Each structure stands twice: as C-alpha cells, then as structure tokens.
Amino acid sequence: MAVIWIILAILIIWLIAANIRIVPQAEAYVIEHLGKFKTIWNAGLHLKMPIVEKIAKKVSLKEQVLDFPPQPVITKDNVTMMIDSVVFCYVFDPKLYTYGIENPISGLQNLSATTLRNIIGDMELDQTLTSRETINGRMQAILDEATDPWGIKVTRVEIKNIQPPKEIEEVMTKQMRAERERRQTVLEAQAHQEAVVSRAEGDKKAKILAAEAERDAQIALAEGRAKSIKLVYEAEAAGISDLNRAGISESVLKLKGIEALKDVSDGRATKIYMPSDIANVISSLGVAGEALGIGDATPINRNAKPKPPVPKDPCITNETGRGGREAAAASAAINSSVVSEDQRSDTTEI
Q1: Which of 47, 174, 217, 330 is the most buried (most CB within 10 A)?
Q2: Taking the mean position of all CA atoms in its chain, how far away is CA 331?
Q3: What is residue 330's DSSP assignment?
Q4: Are 74 and 80 contacting, i.e. CB atoms less than 8 angstroms apart?
C-alpha cells in the first residue's frame, strides 16, 4: 500500500507540474475548456486543468511590422507600377484575433493590397508620386476599421517604395534635368541682372562723386584766381599811390622809361614811343645815318609775338566731364586776361 501511495503522490505532482504555465510579458494565452473558449491568460503564473483545458493559441501583444511584397497597381492615367507598403499593427483582443479570422496576417496583407489598388486607381501618376502622406492616411483609416473584428489595431501605414516603369523613369529623369537646367538658367540670369544693376549703381555713384569733387575743385580754383587778380590790382594801385606820395623826380621817370623800352622794342614793333627829348636826338641821328648809308638797319620782324604755353590743369583728365573742361577753359582765359592786363599796364607806364 505504501508503494501505491508513493506512486499516486508522484503522479499527482507530475500532473500538477505538467499543467503549470508561466505566461511571459506582452503575451496572452487563449484557453479552451472542452473545445469552448474559457478565458485569456495574461502575463504571470497559471494552472491548467489537465485533459479538459488546453491552450488554443499563444498571441503576442507587441506591435508588429508587416513588410508586404510589392503589388502591381494601375493609376487613373493607365500607368502600371509596383508599390510596396509597410503596416504597423498590434493585437488588442486575443479572442477576436484567434476566432475572428483564420489567418489574420494573410487577411491583412490581401486587404492592404486591394485597398492600395483602390486608392491609387483614383489618382494620376504625378499625384501618386507627390501624395504619399495622403495615401498613408487613407490606407491606415480603411485598414484599421476593417481589422477591428479581427482584434487587430492598425497604428500606421507607410508607402515604402514606388517603382514606375522604366520608360516613365526615363521621361521623369529628362523632365527633372530640364527643370534643373531651367532653374539654373533663371538663377544665372537673376545673378547677372543683379550684378549689372549693382555695377551701374556703383558707376553712377562714382561719377556723381567725381563730378562733385571736380565742381568743388573748380570753385576753389576760380575763387583762388579771383583773389589773385584782386591782390594784383590792389598791389598795382598801392604801388601807384606810393609813387605819387614819394614825389619821384622827372629824371627817375625818364630812367624807368628807358628801361621799359627793352620790353617794348623787342624787334617786332613798327613804332617805338620815347620821351620827347630823347626821341628828338635819336630821330636826328637815325635820319642822318639813313641818308649817308651808314648804320645797322635791322629788318622788322612782322611775325606774331609768341604766346607763352598755357599750363596744363592737373585736375583735368580723360574722364573729366564737359562742365569741368569749360571751367578749366574759363580759368585759362582769366589767366590770359591777367597777363594781357599786366602787359598793357607796363606799356601805359612807359
């Protein structure tokens, strides 16, 4: 009897140990009792009744990433291309996941393919390539609603790749290249325009500054010329006043007149004016010399008296404008008039 009890005890312990189950975290076990759904075991320690209970399905509650193979789709403008999508989902109800559909992953894959075809069929090629976010949102909403009876929650759908036909890719490549060349041409034209405008504005400002500087220089030069002329005449007037106050004798004036004859009688004048007494003596001597054929008769030089060269104005350059050149010519004329007045004044004194 003792042996029997020991055997029974060992059998009971084995049965209990064989029916103890530990459910891992993020998993759930679907339990059936005599073929019917009984309960769901969550993470933790559980004891299963032998023979009458069994684990119908072990379900993972983690979010899954389902990468489906590319699917051929046709756009609204009859362009066939390959599109593959990625679906993110998790099981929120293990019972529905177990009894709602025979193969949930296969059903989700086929549902994703048909939904993608329906959405792309309402779009043209260009719209398809630029509306991925719209496609993702519509697919996520449709798949999430359709998989609720299966106990699956679709959290996100992403279009992984869109592969158009090769001939369409070549056309798109040419179009892209043409668009980039157009943008490059536009940018170069804009840059050239900005450079030309900037250069023209710089030239304009430079010419304005040069004209202002030239104007100021000519004004300063004219003011200097005017002051110099004024000082010359004031000095001449002061000199005459001093001579009048000094009471110079007649003999000194005659001596000064003779010294002035050097400048007047330079061989180019046809007439020479002298003081009356000296003129009488020299004229008599000249008549006698001509009558007797003696003396040196110097021929008269009737050529125009050379004028001194006009000094070059350092402010005048090849880039000087018309106004600057006119101002320089006026300054030169003033200088010439000053020289002429000096010569006339010397002759008058003689």
Answers
A1: 217
A2: 48
A3: H
A4: yes
